[in-house]
Specification:
This protein has about 100 residues and is mainly alpha-helical. The protein is built from 3 helices and 2 strands. Helix 1 packs across helix 2. Heterotrimer of A, B and C subunits.
Amino acid sequence: MSITKDDARKVAHLARIAVKEEDLPSLAGELSAVLAFMEQLNEVDVDGVEPMTSVTPMRLKRRQDVVTDGGMVEKILSNAPDAREGFFAVPKVVE
């Protein structure tokens, strides 16, 4: 599939990219190369291939899914301009 200069202009407009008129032919060529590579990838037979997260087989690290306070309340509240009773204190907005 070949991308024309007009197609490249439309793609640039849709992507909200400012492309000079003299740069449109090279953009069209680059987009055509990307589409040609995608067509080439579509020819690869991937039946029976398991999805991978990495090229080396490894198990992702896991942790217990438990709710905690982070264990650093004092450290977090030390950044607050005003903290009271273990919470951020903010000015009253609604009466």
